[in-house]
Amino acid sequence: xxxELLKQKIKKFPPRPGIYFFKNSQGEVIYIGKALSLKNxxxxxxxxxxxxxxxxxxxxxxxxxxxxxxSEKEASFLENNYIQFYQPKFNLxxxxxxxxxxxxxTVKEKxxxxxxxxxxxxxxxxxxxxxxxxxxxxxxITLIARSFGLRTCDNQVFKNRKRPCxxxxxxxxxxxxxxxxxxxxxxxxxxxALLLLEGKKSHLLHQLREKMDQAAAELNFExxxxxxxxxxxxxxxxxxxxxxxxxKENMDIVGYAHxxxxxxxxxxxxxxxxxxxxxxxxxxxxxQSSRRKIPAGQTTGQYTSSLPFKKR
Length: 312
Prior knowledge:
By secondary structure, this protein is of the alpha+beta class. The protein folds into 3 domains: about 1-85, GIY-YIG endonuclease (3-Layer(aba) Sandwich); about 100-235, no CATH class; about 250-310, no CATH class. About 40% of the residues lie in helices and about 20% in strands. It has helices at about 1-10, 40-45, 50-60, 70-85, 135-150, 155-160, 165-170, 185-195, 200-215, 220-235, 295-305, and strands at about 20-25, 30-35, 65-70, 100-105, 115, 125-130, 250-260, 260-270, 275-285, 310. A hairpin with an 8-residue loop joins strand 4 (about 100-105) and strand 5. Helix 9 packs antiparallel against helix 10. It is elongated, with a radius of gyration of 25 Å. Mean pLDDT is about 80; it is low at about 305-310.
């Protein structure tokens, strides 16, 4: 009977990206997964002749819940964060704080470099990401090095160069190590790379198109072609995820909606820049004056009441 009720429930699930939670009769999360289509993925657990793992999960499942995100990639990051927080008994992987890579730019240096990093440290550098798979981060480093001439070598190599290396010959570095680019020009290139990494791609593309048109007007067709290739590469670049902050903030992000005499409050709990968990509460017949704003008593109650929000 329980299985039939769950089958009926998941018929209403949306065919959108997200993470899903299998819960037991005590409301404990026993399994977490991710999906490009929540509806189709969760339906697959109820196919005939499931394997032993699925049988065990369903044998203890009393309810199924989900959380929508904007892409499958964001679902992957959130799945990792939630598994680390809840430690569900049927999730055998990702419990070991799997580390997704970040891009690191050493902005405090005279000629900053760009690198792959598994940790975000308080070292004055700027970090961007995370990325999954790691190959995506490596490809972005290559794109930035080729487009903006930022170095990728470590400081020991950089300080001891006497002539340009192979990266310069391959047009993947501007060779600041031997003075082939001025500090001001290198900084200008760095600022353009930062516009890209900070999500200001449209502004960057506008700047590059203006430079391309100017180069063409000056009959500098080689430079115009180089800028055209950069623009094409940037236009095809996918958006960087939004569910992990490199600022390592501790904050709660609150959402509120109401309809037909009911109001819902949802809170993401971000700890050290990662959304680790979330809470939800349904309010019956909210006060008329509160329908366009979050009722303060309902949110502060989470921190003062002995009855916390239902964990998702």
